[in-house]
Amino acid sequence: MKMRQSLAEWEQAFVREVTLDRHRRDSLRRTTEKRAFKRDLARRHKRGSMRFALLVLALMFTAVVVTVVMFRTLYLLLG
Prior knowledge:
Layout: H1 2-78
């Protein structure tokens, strides 16, 4: 009887340990997914900011070039 009880206790402990391990793995997986999502979000934000800055610079450069060309053409036409 003592041997059966001991075996049953071992089985219960094993089932408890397996359940705890499963929960631990799920928790680690969720944590890893959250961290990866945050990194991806930060990377996307950084790329978006850089693209926006390049767009603003391109628009400013275009405005300067158009203004210079316009005034030179005006000078040639009126001069």
